[in-house]
Write a structure and sequence with these properties.
Blueprint (H helix, E strand, L loop, with lengths): L15 E4 L5 E6 L5 H9 L3 H8 L8 H8 L6 E8 L2 E11 L12 E8 L8 H15 L4 E6 L4 H8 L5 E6 L2 E7 L4 H23 L3 E5 L8 H11 L5 E5 L9 E2 L2 E4 L11 E4 L6 H11 L3 E4 L9 H16 L3 E3 L5 E4 L6 E4 L7 E8 L2 H17 L6 E6 L8 H9 L6 E6 L5 H12 L4 E5 L17 H10 L3 E3 L2 H13 L7 E6 L2 H13 L3 E2 L3 E2 L6 H13 L5 E6 L7 H17 L5 E5 L3 H9 L47 E2 L2 H21 L13 H11 L6 E2 L2 H9 L8 E3 L3 H11 L3 E5 L13 E5 L2 H15 L2 H4 L1 E5 L5 E10 L3 E8 L2 H4 L4 E5 L4 H10 L17 H17 L3 E11 L4 E3 L2 E5 L17
Helix pairs in contact: 6-11, 8-9, 11-12, 12-13, 14-19, 15-19, 16-17, 17-18, 22-23, 26-27
């Protein structure tokens, strides 16, 4: 607690958990007067060299005056932060506000001196870099805009911390000391540095969980059965390459093993380090297990135990305490209520899950929150891999359960540069941080495909995150903009993943179709049209086609420059057995391997033999373990026993290096749906290589808009602007709103028309009639006073008094297509720009397109063309095309306004009439409010509890 003389109360919102460079975690919090003993203990563990670098002289111990100075802060002009693990300090940082003369000062002085001290045992873990991000955020909050630091030239590590941070800097050398000065305003480079450090740290934290050198299973039952005993067997039977330990505090004294695995009554009894603990005890005993793990130095936990947030308010609080407890010791958690994790790498072979058998190794990464969904994914991939494609091997699998700590974002960070993962498949019941997820997804999708099934669930229970207010469809559209391949079902997830795993990306949407069934070819052709592909006329090889005919036809199709992908359709031939299937499979593979740059898919009808043959040459399926004499082979949990393996006498062909594995599908619609998703993703990759630019407009008055907004928000309250303020603000960004004059009486309407000039429009602006020309609340092309008075009388007769109608008079705009432009700042997803046609298309059918702000010129053009009714803008059925370049410029200007001024939390321009030349904004509304906090601009933190 701080004393009464302190100028500010303890700033609890500065507390945060951070992931360090090596994947461990630390707690960052303000230093208080209660930390005197911790500070002294911390200082005693710092080397003399580090002390010398900090104080520029030998400084063996802190005096009482020093301790008082370093623990008493006002949290404004003097601030100290500490990084802690297990409640003890591992590093400190402080700033002192100074004036132009370098002496202590108060606001409005905006410069401060900053200094760090990191315990030697924790140097090199990125602690100072993380503390710099947090102290800089604190300083900006307190009105400090610049840091100064004096460093000895020999202190290269600390100089590197400052110079690598990405801030705008100035360096000088005087009296044997390096003086660094840098602005604290985030720059593109500082954000890039921050994101790169975030990726390395969070990716490393997941890597530590997936590649442990030693594992302890806590809660291994004394009798066979139970979760702990099952997981222990699964890890052992998978051939885990590290050290495995069983832990159960109820084990009898003297029992040294459980089923051949070394056994202990406590983690702390294990001789040597433990990298990962699998916790399978009841919820009430988990805190004891976590404490023992923390004291033993365990790096991470997989908590299988249930009874947490999924069970109600008491469980949610238990889950929060679990996370706080683990993070206090620098441990990360998968779970609780998790299904487990799998790593098929030959160097690890870890099956720390409830799946009784290890999946076959491969290049697909899997993430699911739900254990049931995880089982379904593993099962489907196994069935497809064993009997259809041979390309469904798994690299890593994570089922996060309640997702209390490690989330899909963390796993994405790991997969981004994991050399063993080529394709990422994710089932997300919810997205807790859409802004971060879209940022990570965009970066990942540029390197490897990311396929997502997105549920419509709420934020994870127990998480202190802002929920998005955007509709589910809008979030899906934003994910697609970020390069995510969005599918609707687990079946589509697997279908698409299999195609991406071993087939190249197509160069376009032109699809050749060939096969031995005319009907199946036509079905495939129609499916391609439905999915927006450009199919070529199907080639019917007739039912008598031989494997050689398929080979020749496929070779011709792949060699054709007018073809980007090939779908082969096949039905079984009467009287042919496995030999015929194998011959056809080999014919297709050999033809595909000659032209490796185009994807090939097979649609088959009940061709089990062909499906097996397509995968045989490079199958990664594990071979059956030899059964004991007279015994029965152990059946795989995901397939019938009679399909477990070839007969013992069968010779299994060795995998062919680089073999072209062709995915096969039991229905044309499934194959084509997967292909269409891959075609769209390939186009996104090409577009992402040239993302466009955010244009600069010379007539934008950014400072004038900032002054206007500041004045309107002077009282700190949000408000919807009036007509004059709206027009003024939009005008500063070059958006001209067609003038409308209030007409509370017929005479006022006539005077307004005289001011504007005939012809005019008379509109009712009451909420229930606004933008509803279909209800008769709008009269257009009124050429004179007589028509205007008659229209006014009709409106009041039909809909009520002028006070109820709120009529306005507006000059006529050129005829065109009515559209709507909206921008909104969502607290979770960020600023979103939306576009559609006004009226039923957007309101009833939801035909709106969305992009994240800031929008580039290429994205603005794509936004206009993304709605289903876009043909109406481009001369549909002989109509006159409208001025879409003017529309794109309007979208870019609105995007700039919202991006430059986050206080503009909502804009609606409706209708925007786009004519053959130019456009007219006939209605506009703007709402201002203090902007929501930007998590992505602040320091790195883990979700709060």
């Amino acid at each position: 607690m701080q004393t009464s003389s302190d100028r500010h109360e303890y700033p609890a919102h500065w507390e945060a958990d951070v992931v360090l460079r090596d994947g461990g975690t630390a707690r960052v919090r303000p230093i208080t007067v209660d930390d005197a003993d911790r500070l002294v203990s911390f200082y005693e563990q710092v080397s003399d060299e580090s002390k010398y670098y900090r104080f520029f002289a030998p400084y063996p111990r802190l005096s009482a005056k020093d301790v008082h100075r370093f623990t008493h802060h006002d949290f404004v002009d003097r601030v100290g932060l500490a990084a802690t693990i297990g409640g003890e300090f591992i590093a400190t940082v402080r700033y002192d506000r100074i004036g132009t003369d370098g002496m202590p000062a108060s606001a409005p002085a905006d410069e401060a001196e900053v200094a760090f001290l990191v315990q030697d045992a924790h140097q090199g873990r990125g602690v100072a870099s993380a503390l710099l991000e947090h102290i800089a955020a604190v300083a900006r909050e307190r009105g400090i805009r610049r840091f100064a630091a004096e460093v000895l030239p020999a202190n290269i590590k600390m100089i590197k911390v400052f110079t690598d941070a990405g801030y705008t800097q100035k360096r000088s050398f005087e009296d044997g000391v390096v003086r660094l000065e840098f602005d604290l305003e985030p720059t593109d480079r500082s954000l890039a540095v921050q994101y790169a450090r975030e990726q390395r740290a969070e990716g490393r934290s997941v890597q530590r969980l997936l590649t442990p050198g030693s594992v302890a299973v806590i809660g291994t039952g004394r009798a066979p059965g139970g979760v702990g005993r099952s997981v222990l067997h699964n890890i052992r039977d998978a051939g885990f390459t590290g050290r495995l330990h069983a832990v159960n505090k109820a084990l009898p004294e003297g029992q040294k093993d459980v089923d051949g695995v070394p056994a202990h009554r406590s983690v702390r009894d294990i001789d040597g380090p433990v990298d990962l603990a699998i916790v399978a005890v009841s919820a009430e005993h988990v805190p004891e297990a976590v404490e023992e793990c923390g004291r033993h130095g365990v790096q991470g936990l997989v908590v299988l135990s249930a009874g947490y947030a999924e069970s109600g308010p008491e469980g949610r609080e238990r889950q929060r305490e679990l996370v706080r407890h683990a993070r206090a010791y620098g441990m990360r958690i998968i779970g609780p209520n998790a299904f487990g994790i799998i790593n098929t790498s030959a160097d690890v072979r870890l099956n720390a899950s409830l799946a009784p058998q290890m999946p076959r190794p491969g290049r697909i990464g899997l993430f699911a929150q739900s254990g049931a969904i995880g089982i379904a994914l593993l099962s489907r991939l196994h069935r497809r891999g064993g009997g259809v494609t041979g390309v469904s091997g798994v690299s890593t699998f994570v089922s996060s359960g309640n997702r209390a700590d490690v989330s899909g974002n963390d796993v994405l960070q790991y997969w981004y540069d994991d050399p063993d993962t080529d394709v990422a498949l994710m089932y997300l019941e919810s997205i807790g941080n859409p802004r971060k997820f879209t940022r990570l997804a965009r970066r990942t999708a540029a390197a490897k495909p990311l396929v997502v099934v997105q549920g419509a669930g709420s934020a994870p229970q127990g998480h202190a995150v802002r929920a998005t207010r955007l509709p589910h469809a809008t979030v899906s559209a934003l994910l697609r903009q970020a390069g995510v391949i969005r599918v609707e079902t687990i079946t589509e997830l697997v279908d698409t993943g299999l195609l991406l795993a071993r087939q190249p990306l197509p160069a376009g949407a032109r699809v050749a179709i060939l096969g031995n069934s005319e009907s199946l070819g036509l079905l495939t052709y129609d499916a391609c049209l439905s999915e927006g592909l450009r199919p070529l006329p199907p080639l019917d090889l007739t039912t008598g086609a031989s494997p050689g005919d398929f080979h020749e036809a496929l070779s011709r199709a792949l060699a054709d420059d007018a073809c980007d992908a090939v779908v082969v359709t096949a039905i079984p031939a009467l009287g042919e057995g496995s030999a015929g299937d194998a011959a056809l499979a080999e014919a297709l593979r050999s033809a595909a391997e000659r032209v490796p740059g185009k994807p090939v898919l097979v649609v088959h009808v009940e061709l089990g033999g062909l499906a097996e043959a397509l995968s045989a040459a490079a199958s990664t399926a594990p071979q059956a373990a030899s059964a004991k004499p007279g015994g029965v082979p152990r059946a795989h949990p995901f397939r019938p026993l009679d399909r477990l393996a070839a007969p013992a006498t069968a010779e299994v062909p060795a995998p062919r290096t680089g073999a072209r594995l062709i995915p096969a599908y039991p229905a044309a619609e499934r194959a084509v749906r997967a292909l269409s998703e891959v075609v769209r993703y390939a186009q996104w990759r090409r577009d992402a290589a040239e993302p466009g630019r955010v244009p600069e407009y010379e007539d934008i008055d950014e400072k004038g808009a900032a002054t206007l907004i500041g004045g309107l928000l002077a009282d700190g309250q949000g408000l919807t602007l009036g007509t004059e303020e709206t027009c003024d603000l939009l005008g500063k960004y070059g958006v001209r709103v067609h003038r409308a004059l209030s007409a509370p009486t017929p005479d006022d309407a006539v005077r307004a028309a005289g001011t504007l000039g005939y012809p005019v429009a008379l509109k009712a602006t009451a909420p229930h009639l606004r933008h509803r020309a279909d209800l008769g609340g709008v009269r257009l092309d009124l050429a004179d006073e007589e028509q205007l008075r008659r229209a006014y009388a009709e409106l009041t007769e039909m809909f009520g008094t002028p006070q109820e109608l709120r009529p306005v008079v507006q000059g006529m705009a050129p005829r065109g297509v009515d559209t709507v432009v909206r921008a909104v700042i969502d607290p979770a997803a960020g600023a979103v720009l939306s576009f559609g046609l006004a009226g039923a298309a957007s309101q009833l059918l939801g035909d709106m397109a969305h992009r994240l702000v800031p929008v580039t010129d290429r994205e603005a053009a794509s936004l206009v063309r993304s709605i289903r009714t876009a043909p109406l803008l481009f001369g549909w059925r002989g109509s006159t095309p409208v001025d879409t370049p003017a529309l794109e410029e309007l979208l870019l200007r609105v995007s700039r306004l919202v991006d430059d001024h986050p206080e503009v939390v909502a804009i609606t321009l409706e209708p925007v009439v786009v004519a053959q030349r130019d456009l007219s904004v006939l209605g506009a509304s703007v709402r201002l409010a203090p902007p929501p906090a930007r998590d992505d601009l602040g320091p790195r933190t883990l979700p709060a509890y």
